[in-house]
Amino acid sequence: TQQLVWPMAQFGQVINMYQRAAASSERIFGLMDERGRIERDANAEDLEITDGRVEYESVSFSYDETDGSVSQETQRANRIIDDVSFEVDGGDTVALVGPTGAGKSTVLKLLLRLYDVDEGSIRIDDRDVREASLSSLRRSMGYVGQDSFLFYGTVEENITYGTFEASREEIIEAAKAAEAHEFIRNLPDGYDTMVGERGVKLSGGQRQRVAIARAVLKDPDVLVLDEATSDVDTETEMLIQRSIDHLTADRTTFAIAHRLSTIKDADLILVLEDGRIVERGTHRELLESGGLYSHLWGVQAGEIDELPQEFIERAQR
Ligand code: ATP
């Protein structure tokens, strides 16, 4: 029976690894447990990113399926993203800020093509993302998210996920750049320690650094950062910030930020409210203009106690 069981076990393992990879490739972008909804184009060609310039042109989107039963006005009223246009040069960082539910994550889901835009277009280096093969699009993007997903496997497997043929040296380099090498070295089996469900439990800050190492190794053209709100101590936060600074340098980066202090150096800050861009500019420009951003900044910096009533009312509408 040995001989019979053995290949079966092998087969089982292959299936398991496949399922694991399939599950994590969907969740690796973390933005979603969602299945998404897109039209696949059989003629799609691989995306070739040269500059990494990204353009949103008059993008509108709603989560409702449009089967023609709702009027155009209703559809317009249900828009989650409403006429969003902006441009980011290759290598620059654009930050998205705004109240909860404003549509920040949705803007990025459209870039990753979990959903297709209803109107307008998103182009990377002048190429509409709908014309690019999904695999090449996802390959060229890295994601470091709020609650970074680790699958059951070794630390090394978690770092190399999505990158084939990385040597142990390259993996260690990536971990060092992510300020993760030290803590990994101190795990029971170092890089061979099993983590994820049933494995050694890592803290939020550690999981995040593994995710950063994964992104460093993947070396994507476009990076999507969804800032962690998890509680980490100041020192860990500093380490994470430093590793993120490494990662975003010279790479087109989209950052969703909750603490404005982390994005004040962004090349462009977009303030979203109710699916629309209500303010845009650099940190300095936005402070000078005295709108929502400057007040959010005032609250976070402890300069004012709370948002003026007009902004609270606007956010509640
Ligand atoms: P937060 O800061 O809380 O993460 P956000 O600005 O990222 O918020 P989104 O997550 O983009 O906002 O959500 C925008 C709106 O779309 C919200 O009203 C939300 O309830 C809705 N929404 C998000 N995902 C879905 C979905 N899969 N199906 C239907 N509605 C959704």
Describe, in short, the structure shown:
The chain has helices spanning 2-27, 72-77, 104-111, 134-139, 155-160, 168-177, 181-185, 204-218, 234-248, 283-289, 292-300, 309-316, and strands at residues 54-61, 81-88, 93-97, 119-124, 127-128, 141-144, 153-154, 194-195, 222-226, 252-256, 268-273, 276-281.
Explained architecture:
The protein has helices at residues 2-27, 72-77, 104-111, 134-139, 155-160, 168-177, 181-185, 204-218, 234-248, 283-289, 292-300, 309-316, and strands at residues 54-61, 81-88, 93-97, 119-124, 127-128, 141-144, 153-154, 194-195, 222-226, 252-256, 268-273, 276-281. The strands form 3 sheets. A 6-stranded mixed beta sheet has the order 6-9-10-3-11-12. Mean pLDDT is 82; it is low at 1-33. A hairpin with a 2-residue loop joins strand 4 (119-124) and strand 5. The protein is of the alpha/beta class and 317 residues long. Bound molecules: adenosine-5'-triphosphate. Adenosine-5'-triphosphate binds at residues 34, 63, 80, 98, 100-106. Its main location: membrane. It is found in: Membrane. Keywords: ATP-binding, Membrane, Nucleotide-binding, Transmembrane, Transmembrane helix, Transport.
